[in-house]
Amino acid sequence: MIDNLGVLETAALLRELTAGLIGAAGFDEALDRLVRIARDAVPAVDSCGFTALRAGEPAGVAASDPDRAELDDLRHCPDTPAMTAIRRREMITAGGLSGDTRWPVWSERARALGVHGVISAPVDIDEQVIGAINLYADSPDALTPRHQLTAMLLAEHAGLLLAAARDRERAATRAGQLDDALLAEGVVGQAVGVIMTQRGCPAPEALRVLRSAASSLDIPLREVAERLVLTVSRPRDN
């Protein structure tokens, strides 16, 4: 029953992963969804974690089981299966940690937390961030060659989706910076203030209204702002 990770099951896992990560608001949320989906969808995997490095330095972790989060955190122990996978750029498997001497400190802590098997697969995300997805089993005999294949496919697919999440996050940051610059600009800021007063809405919503008007009229944003400010500042006839 354990060795039943067939093509259909793997395809379903990748579909679920795509649906879950595409809707993530940011990179951290995508990581949290990734580890939960992997834990729930892969038979015999009792928990899942992710170890991330940014520019070669620890950049956070995600864990499906918070009690085991330290196993993915290089700040607690830099010598881990995840770090070996990242450094060697290859999948690392340990079916029975009791007889494995590669990571003595980490293995002792893992066994204390009920982990007796691990697969760590490297994940390439972008030029700044790399990582490893870690599949944990409570039984030393639970992880099979089919789990290794699933881990490899999971890592490749997750890398693409996490890169997209990083791109969306960067785009949102740039958009926010652009919005701040626009709001600080004279006539656009004034127009936003007019809309806020008229509609009783916050500045971001007022800016969206202004952008929508510019798009509908097919004229530059600044020109729409100038027209609005001119209209409200024009003296009314008695």
Automatic annotation (TrEMBL):
Keywords for the protein's UniProt record, in alphabetical order: Transcription, Transcription regulation
Annotated InterPro entries: ANTAR, GAF, GAF-like_dom_sf, GAF_ANTAR, WH-like_DNA-bd_sf
Gene3D superfamilies assigned to the protein according to its UniProt record, in alphabetical order: 3.30.450.40, Winged helix-like DNA-binding domain superfamily/Winged helix DNA-binding domain (1.10.10.10)
Domain ANTAR per the UniProt entry, residue ranges: 168-229
Pfam families the record matches: ANTAR (PF03861), GAF_2 (PF13185)
Protein name as catalogued: GAF domain-containing protein
